[in-house]
Amino acid sequence: xxxxxxxxxxxxxxxxxxxxxxxxxxxxxxxxxxxxxxxxxxxxxxxxxxxxxxxxxxxxxxxxxxxxxxxxxxxxxxxxxxxxxxxxxxxxxxxxxxxxxxxxxxxxxxxxxxxxxxxxxxxxxxxxxxxxxxxxxxx
Length: 139
Hints:
By secondary structure, the protein is of the alpha+beta class. It has five helices and four strands, in the order H-E-E-H-E-E-H-H-H. 45% of the residues lie in helices and 19% in strands. A four-stranded antiparallel β-sheet has the order 1-2-4-3. Helix 4 runs antiparallel to helix 5. InterPro entries: Homing_endonucl (IPR027434). This is Homing endonuclease LAGLIDADG domain-containing protein.
């Protein structure tokens, strides 16, 4: 993929995006997700067109708010995108989180959905490191 596109997408992630570990079902294991929100449909469609994922319209919190759009991609798709964008990320915490996911999650997402006790312990350790600078997540 063109380096200009990758650098631009990394800039969008640095400014408007999030690199997350999200539980997709109650009590389930967290998985990598990338999200980006914008009031510009062109920006979220740029991400979808170049990297896949999905786009949705956000519900307005107040009538006077502008319409906003969200792009997201998860699991293996998020890993692929992070591998492409990581060299271009400039925001320190996002770059740290991207490296942590890239280095650890390829071996922590079993294709059969079965998590061994060893995998669960490794996930727990990665999550502690991932969220160490977060004030919102309680481990």
